[in-house]
Amino acid sequence: MMEYSERRKYYHIIRQRCYAEVIGSSVWIEKLATLKGRICLEIAHPSNVREAHEWKTEPKLNWNGILETANDKEPRHFDVAVFVDGKLGALAHGRVSKGKRIVRIDRIARNPSCDELKRLVVPLVVDIAMTYAQKLGAKSLKITEPMDKLVSTLIDVYNGSHELGWNSFPYEHVSIPVVS
């Protein structure tokens, strides 16, 4: 069995490969054409997300607390920090179930002053999370507590289903099947 630090490195490498694979795909090269050479995807870590505390977003999230817990206890968690021109433009975080059958996106936030990422953050994060889920062999991607205006898009674009939750997973979510 791998030591914790080895597991953490292993999953960091997988996530970084997912970032590169998605952003290097022809679909995303076209969508991000105006940001060519200006966008960078990185592992989200408390040291590189300090700017998020200044965002005027609701609800106000403690990204340091979220990421410290994830980095300390959950080496296979899902995260991404999106930078545009060296400034933090968006963050996302989620978890992977113990059996690696489900990848969840629990939080997505865009810096309100980063107009370049408007309407791009959610599809970019979903595509990265889907790629991560495929590499882990997961069966489902869940976006927990999505904003009402996103539910129909997630269902239509990603063939998802809207669920209100149940005893062991009491969160409203959109469940998307992972296609290999």
Helix content: 25-40%
Order of helices and strands: HHEHEEEEHEHEE
Main sheet attributes: strand count, strand direction, barrel closure: 4 strands, antiparallel
Query: Which strands sit side by side, in order, in the main sheet?
Result: 1-2-3-5
Structural category is alpha+beta
Termini distance?
27 Å
Return residue spans where pLDDT drops below 50 for at least 5 consecutive residues: none
Question: Radius of gyration in whole Å, from Cα?
Answer: 16 Å
Q: Number of helical segments?
A: 5
| Number of beta strands | 8
Q: What share of the residues does DSSP label as strand, in percent?
A: 15-25%
What is the residue-averaged pLDDT? 90
Can you tag this structure with a few keywords?
180 residues, alpha+beta, four-stranded antiparallel β-sheet, 5 helices, 8 strands, globular
